[in-house]
C-alpha cells in the first residue's frame, strides 16, 4: 500500500470471527514471518483496524493515524524524510484460537509533498499577461508549494523531483497543461462528430494551441450545451439545485440511496435506488442463508441543496411473527440456528419544494431461524412539510402512474371516499380478503370466493354480491387531478353507475334449485383520462370520466367428488384505464376523403414521402450512404435527360 488507508474483503460469515492487527511480523534476520497468534488487538502502533460486517462479505479497513507532513524548522509529529513510513503489517482473522485467514501488507508511504512551507491564504495578484511575457514555468500553478509533475517548479526539492522525474509535463518551458481543442484532428473528443469533420479539422501539435496567451479575468463560465447533445450521465452526480420527481435520492458519498424493491420480473433487488416523490410498498421473501443487510441507517442523505440529513431511526420488536414467517420443509443450510434480522422498514420522507427536510425510519426486528422463510416489508412514503396527511400532490397537479386515485363522497358530511380492489388472502375467501387502493394507469383484476348454499335465495344472492362489489367503490366522485379540492365541485367528475341487473328478476331460472340467473359477479371500472400538459417535463394527466358497470352470470351449484351443501361463487373486479386525446382530432378534409390514394395512412405508396430517405428520420441505412445513392441516381437521371435531348444529338454529330 502507498496511501494512508487500504480496504480488503473477508469472504464468509463474520459472526464470531475476531480480527487483529500485528505490526512488523517479518524477522529481519531470517526474512520469515513471526509466528502470530490470535490474541492481538485492532490497534498496532500508528495503525487502526476497522471491520464492517455485511453478511457473507465483510469490509476490512486498515488506516494510518499519524501525520504525513514533511517536517519544517523545529517541528514535531511529522516526517523527517520523504519516505515517511516503511512497515510490514499482518491482518489475522480467527475464530477462537483457530486462524481462518491472514493478510500480509507492505506499507511504503511518502510524505505529503504539496506544501513546502507556510502558504498564505491571501489571493495572489497576477499581472495582466497580455502586456507581459509568459512565465518561465507554465505548470507552476501554486505559490509556495511544489506542483506534482512540474519539473521546472523552483519550489520542488531534489528529493521531491525524484518521485515524478519520469512523468514530467512535456511541452514548452517544461510544462504544457493546455487541453486539446475540439477542432484538432487527433483529439476526437467531441461527443457528436459531424460527417464533414475529417475534411475541416486542424492538423497541428499542441505547442501551437489557441489557448496560449488566453487568460480569464474573474470567474470562468462553462459553455451550455444543447439538451440533445448532453451525453447520458453514467455515474451519479451530486445535486445542489434540488430534486425533481423521479430523480434518484443521493447519499453523502455521492451514491444512490437504495432500499430493496421489486423488479419487472417480480424478484426483489437489494440495491434499487429510491426515486424522489415516488412511494412504494414491497414484500420480499428471504431465508437465513440468503439474508443480506441493507444500507446502514447512519448513512446521511443529500437534501438536494448540498447539505446532508441524518436519518431518525426508531427500532421496534415484532410480536406477531406469524404474519412474516412461514415454515420450510427443506433441511438446515447454515451453522447458525437463529439470527436477529430486519422484518420491516418504513421510511417517511418529509419534503418541501425540491428538497428533503427530514427522514423518519421505523425498523422492526425479530429472530429468524434456519428452515424459516421471512417475508420482509419495505415501504417509502413522501409527505409534504405543509400537509402531513399524506394526501397532497407531489408538485405536479396531474396524476402519476402508480399513485392512488383521489375519490370523494360529496353527498355525505365526511367527503373522504375510496376506490379499492381485493388483496389476495389465505384461501381466497371474500370474508378474509384485505383491500388495496386503485392505482392510476395500472389495469388491474382482482377477485375472491363467496360461499353460496344449495338452497340460496336468488334475490338474496344478487343483493349480497352487489353489496360486496359496491363495498369497493365508497365514493360518488373521482378527482380530476391528484390535488383536487373537496370544496370545489369543478375539480371532480361524477361516477356514472349502470344498474347491475333488472330488479324485476326475482325467480330462479326454471324454478330449479341451485340455479340463479343475472348474478352481477363482475364489477367493471372504466376510467377515461388524457394528457393535458406537462410540469417540469413530466406529463400532467387528468381524469375525464369514470363509469361503473356490472357483468352478470348464471350461477349453478357444482357438486364435486363429495357433494356438500356449500359451493363457491367467484366474483371479480377489474379496472381499465382508457387514454383519449386531450383535444378532438382534426376532421378529414374533402380532399383527404375523396383522394384516398394520397393518404399515407391508408396506402402503401405515399407520394408526399417521396424524399423521406433524404431526411434524418430515415434510419434504414447510414445517412452518408443514403445521400451518396441519391446523388448517384440523380446524376444518372440527369445524364439520361441530357443525352436524350435533340440539341445534344446535334452537338454530338
TrEMBL record:
Residues 241-384, 398-580 form the Tectonic-1-3 domain. Keywords: Cilium biogenesis/degradation, Glycoprotein, Signal. GO terms for biological process: cilium assembly; protein localization to ciliary transition zone; smoothened signaling pathway. It holds the Pfam family DUF1619_N. Residues 112-222 form the Tectonic-1-3 N-terminal domain. GO terms for cellular component: MKS complex. Belongs to the tectonic family. Part of the tectonic-like complex (also named B9 complex). This is Tectonic-2. The lineage of its organism: Eukaryota, Metazoa, Chordata, Craniata, Vertebrata.
Amino acid at each position: 500500500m502507498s496511501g494512508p488507508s487500504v480496504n480488503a474483503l473477508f469472504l464468509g460469515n463474520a459472526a464470531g470471527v475476531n480480527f487483529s492487527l500485528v505490526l512488523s511480523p517479518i524477522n529481519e534476520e531470517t526474512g520469515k514471518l513471526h509466528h502470530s497468534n490470535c490474541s492481538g488487538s485492532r490497534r498496532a502502533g500508528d495503525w487502526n483496524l476497522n471491520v464492517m460486517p455485511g453478511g457473507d462479505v465483510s469490509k476490512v479497513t486498515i488506516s494510518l493515524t499519524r501525520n504525513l507532513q514533511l517536517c519544517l524548522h523545529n517541528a514535531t509529529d511529522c516526517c523527517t524524510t520523504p519516505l515517511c513510513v516503511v512497515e510490514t503489517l499482518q491482518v489475522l482473522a480467527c475464530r477462537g484460537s483457530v486462524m481462518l485467514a491472514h493478510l500480509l501488507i507492505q506499507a511504503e508511504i511518502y510524505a505529503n509533498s504539496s506544501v513546502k512551507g507556510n502558504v498564505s491564504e491571501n489571493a495572489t495578484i497576477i499581472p495582466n499577461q497580455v502586456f507581459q511575457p509568459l512565465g518561465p514555468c507554465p505548470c507552476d500553478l501554486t505559490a509556495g508549494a511544489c506542483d506534482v509533475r512540474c519539473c521546472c517548479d523552483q519550489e520542488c526539492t531534489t528529493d521531491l523531483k525524484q518521485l515524478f522525474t519520469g512523468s514530467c509535463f512535456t511541452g514548452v518551458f517544461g510544462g504544457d497543461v493546455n487541453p486539446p481543442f475540439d477542432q484538432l484532428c487527433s483529439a476526437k473528443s467531441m461527443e457528436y462528430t459531424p460527417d464533414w469533420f475529417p475534411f475541416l479539422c486542424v492538423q497541428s501539435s499542441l505547442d501551437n494551441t489557441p489557448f496560449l496567451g488566453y487568460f480569464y479575468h474573474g470567474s470562468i463560465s462553462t459553455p451550455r450545451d444543447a439538451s440533445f447533445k448532453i451525453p447520458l450521465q453514467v455515474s451519479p452526480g451530486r445535486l445542489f439545485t434540488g430534486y425533481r420527481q423521479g430523480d434518484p435520492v443521493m447519499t453523502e458519498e455521492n451514491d444512490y440511496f437504495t432500499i430493496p424493491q421489486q423488479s419487472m420480473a417480480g424478484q426483489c433487488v437489494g440495491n434499487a435506488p429510491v426515486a424522489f416523490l415516488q412511494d412504494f410498498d414491497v414484500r420480499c421473501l428471504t431465508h437465513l442463508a440468503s439474508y443480506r443487510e441493507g444500507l446502514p441507517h447512519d448513512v446521511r442523505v443529500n437534501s438536494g441543496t448540498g447539505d446532508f440529513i441524518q436519518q431518525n431511526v426508531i427500532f421496534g420488536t415484532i410480536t406477531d411473527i406469524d404474519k412474516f414467517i412461514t415454515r420450510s420443509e427443506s433441511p438446515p443450510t447454515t451453522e447458525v440456528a437463529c439470527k436477529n434480522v430486519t422484518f420491516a422498514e418504513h421510511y417517511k420522507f418529509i419534503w418541501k419544494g425540491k428538497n428533503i427536510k427530514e427522514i423518519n425510519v421505523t425498523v422492526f426486528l425479530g429472530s429468524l431461524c434456519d428452515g424459516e422463510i421471512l417475508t420482509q416489508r419495505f415501504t417509502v412514503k413522501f409527505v409534504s412539510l405543509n400537509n402531513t396527511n399524506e394526501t397532497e400532490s407531489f408538485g405536479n397537479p396531474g396524476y402519476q402512474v402508480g399513485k392512488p386515485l383521489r375519490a370523494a363522497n360529496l353527498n355525505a358530511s365526511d367527503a373522504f371516499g375510496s376506490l379499492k380492489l381485493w388483496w389476495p388472502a389465505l384461501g381466497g375467501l371474500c370474508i378474509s380478503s384485505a383491500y388495496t387502493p386503485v392505482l392510476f394507469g395500472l389495469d388491474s383484476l382482482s377477485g375472491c370466493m363467496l360461499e353460496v348454499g344449495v338452497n340460496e335465495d336468488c334475490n338474496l344472492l344478487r343483493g349480497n354480491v352487489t353489496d360486496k362489489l359496491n363495498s369497493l367503490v365508497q365514493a360518488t366522485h373521482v378527482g380530476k387531478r391528484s390535488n383536487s379540492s373537496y370544496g370545489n365541485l369543478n375539480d371532480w367528475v361524477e361516477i356514472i353507475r349502470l344498474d347491475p341487473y333488472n330488479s324485476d328478476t326475482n325467480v330462479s331460472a326454471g324454478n330449479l334449485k341451485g340455479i340463479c340467473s343475472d348474478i352481477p359477479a363482475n364489477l367493471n371500472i372504466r376510467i377515461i383520462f388524457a394528457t393535458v400538459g406537462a410540469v417540469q417535463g413530466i406529463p400532467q394527466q387528468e381524469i375525464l370520466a369514470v363509469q361503473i358497470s356490472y357483468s352478470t352470470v348464471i350461477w349453478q351449484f357444482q357438486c364435486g367428488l363429495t357433494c356438500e351443501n356449500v359451493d363457491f361463487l367467484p366474483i371479480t373486479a377489474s379496472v381499465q384505464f382508457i387514454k383519449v386525446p386531450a383535444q378532438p382530432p382534426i376532421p378529414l378534409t374533402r380532399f383527404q376523403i375523396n383522394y384516398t390514394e394520397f393518404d399515407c395512412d391508408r396506402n402503401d405508396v405515399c407520394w408526399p414521402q417521396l424524399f423521406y430517405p433524404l431526411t434524418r428520420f430515415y434510419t434504414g441505412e447510414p445517412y452518408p450512404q443514403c445521400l451518396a445513392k441519391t446523388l448517384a441516381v440523380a446524376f444518372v437521371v440527369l445524364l439520361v435527360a441530357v443525352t436524350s435531348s435533340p440539341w445534344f444529338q446535334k452537338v454530338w454529330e
